[in-house]
């Protein structure tokens, strides 16, 4: 408390003596300050007087619009209670700054740092500048910290990690990149420096995924070539930012699996261990529990996670014709026959009542039976050998014939189609069907499955979640297994199925359940607060706005379609284009003949028994 009052007193005193900061009042830092929401001004506890009187420190306290608060601190100790995204303006001694220790040993790279050199007056000597440069280079190499302004009475210096030193005797790689330069004003450093990275090497990893196809050298097993959308994006970024792409060998664990102690392997593991500067393979944007180490770029595209299952088996040839038309047509066909028979019977009754026709020796129910039989005979397009006497009834039979021709045409055309395009039993259409089918759902990458069926969502998802099964074999081809062996379902990205398993889809070996449980946006990943994050995002947004990424995706899909079409055409050329029906396709006809014969025999026996019975009855009467 006492310290604060002292500070306020000092500030009040200082206000009256208006010595101006010559360098800061020129407005060099204007744009940088506009971007900073708040700045902590730190004065050394031991030199509070001098520091509070420092013209540059006073500029931060009085002459900027940026809100600030003032603290005192101890140069030799690390700064307590600084948030990782805070921006600081520290008055500091030159030796302390060069040593990169104590208060100068900050390990965060999200904030902006202003180091006001406290005790050294006038210009820095050549020797001092070299020392500062060396300490800046160390910070860059160790932690990629660069967003710092070193303010002396006469100049502002920044460290440009991409500027090259003229090669005079310096052979180490470290010496070739990075220079301390006077700051000439303009944009904040993240924009200013990253317009042109001047060939600085960035470690980039791209592994196999939907939009990235690595090709390996068969002899060495090393990456030989890359194709796909992600590679196009990588090349565009390289050209726009002018960095050198130091392409890493793809990790065999791809995205990475989380182990029990929270560490990852794969690309996420590389990022955690500072082995990777940017991974240009799309990741689902979701929580991987590594928010302290990893960041996503802007979303570049999106995709769905879908379940694929073996295609339903084809309907066997023997009963195929029955399924040639829908059940509604069958139902209409059968019901209409009875309705028509009923109408015919009504006509007959009216005729009898009006005595237009007379039918001798037959009771009404016998006539009704005869009418039903005759209707069916007409209905299956057989001619009646004996027509009724009434012309009204004959007209009606004519209309029946016409309707039966239409039904017949429908049946015949459907039959022809059905032999060329075989029908399948009903496929799994919804998640509920999938649950009922009892298939286990196999996945290869935990990142795909860990929130696929979030158990709390519904009892259905809870039940499906229990059916998930992890295939740990990195070389397993789940799609192939589902297509050939069957008996299980798989999880994959929709586009990956469309592009990589198109052959299975076209040959009707697998089936994508139309209800996809999860929708994701997809981003690239980089280490958290990576210096190039903003630059990469800016360029990605430009590519997106220009529609280039969309175009590359369409291009890739087009190439897949063309390849598939060629394969299919070849397959069709080999197979006969015209389907010739064989004796095997006649199966149903034989069944119908057998069943018909059986029914006819039954009818024969029935009629025979009936005749005997009535003969015996009439003999008794005699
Ligand atoms: C890219 O960087 C190289 C240095 O590696 C430089 O010669 C070249 O001029 C830069 N390109 C652009 C467009 O600035
Ligand atoms: C975590 O576990 C993995 C193996 O599961 C091991 O390789 C790694 O060294 C462990 N990391 C730590 C920090 O214990």
UniProtKB/TrEMBL annotation:
<keyword id="KW-0675">Receptor</keyword>
<feature type="transmembrane region" description="Helical">
    <location>
        <begin position="396"/>
        <end position="420"/>
    </location>
</feature>
<protein>
    <submittedName>
        <fullName>Uncharacterized protein LOC117567573</fullName>
    </submittedName>
</protein>
<dbReference type="GO" id="GO:0005886">
    <property type="term" value="C:plasma membrane"/>
</dbReference>
<feature type="transmembrane region" description="Helical">
    <location>
        <begin position="588"/>
        <end position="611"/>
    </location>
</feature>
<keyword id="KW-0325">Glycoprotein</keyword>
<keyword id="KW-0812">Transmembrane</keyword>
<keyword id="KW-0472">Membrane</keyword>
<feature type="signal peptide">
    <location>
        <begin position="1"/>
        <end position="21"/>
    </location>
</feature>
<dbReference type="InterPro" id="IPR052192">
    <property type="entry name" value="Insect_Ionotropic_Sensory_Rcpt"/>
</dbReference>
<keyword id="KW-1133">Transmembrane helix</keyword>
<keyword id="KW-1003">Cell membrane</keyword>
<feature type="transmembrane region" description="Helical">
    <location>
        <begin position="329"/>
        <end position="347"/>
    </location>
</feature>
<keyword id="KW-0732">Signal</keyword>
């Amino acid at each position: 408390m006492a310290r604060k009052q002292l500070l306020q007193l000092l500030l009040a005193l200082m206000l009256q003596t208006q010595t101006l900061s010559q360098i800061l009042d020129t407005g060099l830092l204007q744009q940088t300050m506009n971007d900073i929401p708040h700045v902590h001004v730190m004065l050394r506890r031991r030199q509070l007087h001098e520091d509070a009187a420092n013209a540059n420190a006073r500029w931060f306290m009085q002459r900027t619009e940026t809100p600030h608060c003032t603290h005192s601190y101890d140069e030799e100790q690390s700064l307590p209670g600084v948030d990782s995204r805070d921006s600081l303006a520290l008055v500091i001694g030159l030796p302390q700054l060069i040593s990169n220790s104590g208060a100068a040993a900050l390990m965060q790279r999200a904030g902006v740092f202003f180091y006001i050199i406290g005790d050294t007056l006038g210009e820095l000597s050549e020797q001092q500048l070299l020392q500062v440069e060396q300490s800046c280079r160390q910070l860059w190499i160790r932690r990629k910290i660069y967003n710092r302004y070193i303010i002396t009475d006469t100049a502002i210096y920044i460290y440009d990690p991409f500027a090259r030193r003229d090669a005079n005797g310096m052979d180490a790689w470290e010496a070739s990149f990075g220079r301390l330069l006077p700051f000439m004003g303009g944009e904040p450093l993240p924009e200013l420096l990253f317009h042109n990275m001047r060939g600085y090497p960035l470690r980039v990893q791209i592994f196999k995924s939907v939009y990235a196809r690595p090709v390996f050298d068969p002899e060495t097993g090393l990456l030989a070539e890359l194709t796909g959308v992600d590679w196009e994006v990588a090349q565009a970024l390289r050209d726009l930012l002018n960095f050198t792409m130091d392409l890493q060998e793809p990790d065999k664990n791809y995205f990475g699996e989380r182990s029990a102690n929270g560490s990852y392997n794969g690309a996420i593991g590389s990022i955690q261990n500072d082995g990777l500067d940017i991974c240009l393979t799309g990741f689902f944007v979701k929580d991987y529990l590594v928010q302290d180490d990893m960041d996503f770029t802007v979303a570049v595209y999106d995709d769905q996670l879908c379940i694929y299952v073996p295609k339903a088996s084809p309907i066997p040839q023997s009963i195929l014709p029955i399924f040639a038309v829908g059940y509604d047509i069958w139902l209409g066909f059968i019901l209409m026959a009875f309705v028509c028979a009923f109408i015919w019977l009504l006509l007959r009754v009216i005729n009898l009542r009006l005595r237009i026709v007379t039918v001798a020796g037959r009771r009404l129910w016998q006539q009704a039976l005869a009418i039903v039989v005759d209707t069916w005979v007409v209905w299956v397009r057989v001619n009646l050998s004996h027509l009724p006497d009434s012309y009204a009834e004959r007209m009606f039979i004519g209309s029946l014939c016409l309707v039966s021709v239409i039904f017949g045409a429908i049946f015949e055309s459907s039959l022809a189609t059905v032999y060329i395009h075989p029908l399948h039993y009903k496929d799994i259409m919804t998640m509920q069907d999938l649950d009922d089918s009892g298939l286990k759902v196999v996945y290869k990458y935990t990142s795909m499955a860990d929130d696929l069926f979030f158990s709390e969502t519904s009892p259905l998802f809870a039940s499906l979640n229990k059916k998930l099964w992890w295939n740990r074999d990195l070389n397993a081809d789940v799609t192939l297994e589902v297509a050939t062996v069957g008996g299980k379902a798989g999880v994959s990205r929709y586009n990956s199925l469309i592009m990589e398993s198109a052959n299975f889809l076209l040959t009707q070996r697998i089936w994508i359940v139309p209800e996809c449980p999860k929708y994701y946006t997809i981003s690239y990943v980089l280490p958290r607060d990576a210096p190039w994050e903003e630059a990469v995002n800016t360029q990605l947004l430009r590519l997106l706005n220009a529609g280039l990424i969309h175009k590359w995706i369409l291009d890739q899909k087009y190439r897949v379609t063309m390849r598939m079409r060629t394969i299919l055409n070849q397959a069709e050329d080999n197979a006969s284009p015209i389907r010739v029906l064989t004796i095997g396709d006649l199966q149903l006809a034989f069944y119908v003949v057998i069943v018909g014969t059986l029914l006819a025999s039954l009818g024969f026996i029935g009629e025979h028994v009936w005749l005997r019975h009535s003969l015996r009855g009439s003999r008794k009467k005699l």
